[in-house]
Amino acid sequence: MVDLLDGWEDWIAYFEARLAQPLDRVDGEDGSITYTSGQPGEVVVRLTRASIVVSEFAVAWDGPHTLVPAPRRLGSVRWRRLGSSRAIAVIEHLLTAAREARRARYQLCRSCDRSQPPEWMYDEATCQECADAHVEVVH
Q1: In what helix (H) or strand (E) does residue 117 lie, and over which residues does it extend?
Q2: pTM
Q3: Residues paired with residue 67 on neighbouring β-strands, in sequence order
Q4: How would residue 95 be classed by pLDDT, with cut points 50, 70 and 90?
Q5: Kind and range of the H or E element at 34?
Q6: pLDDT tens-digit map of 63-82
Q7: Long-range CB contacts for residues 9-12, cutoff 8 Å, separation at least 24
Q8: Cα 84–85–88 angle (5° rounding)?
């Protein structure tokens, strides 16, 4: 069996072609590459020389006005040990699971009837945009 992706550069090309746009790439000091895919974010992939970690995009509040990345890890693959054809199959399942898990957390705004990611919600029923538009002004 011939490996489809036999090296580091092949995996980089694979993720840059496979992940949804916009695609943000951050090169780590340790030589890793972290991709965040989609707007709003859906999938986070961390590629190292030994493994691939797939996470659902998530954020946490660090103070009242600051969101920080807090990805939820779904799984990892030791791509050098597994071989690329098997690794690709596992990675495809993890990418699909990450997208589906992220989208399952969206909430419907009762004011505008749009599905919004949880960090864009003011409360369980109203998105931030609608909450800002309907703030009562006291004169």
Answers
A1: none
A2: 0.86
A3: 61
A4: very high
A5: strand 33-37
A6: 878 889 999 999 999 988 88
A7: 10/84, 11/47, 11/52, 11/79, 12/47
A8: 75
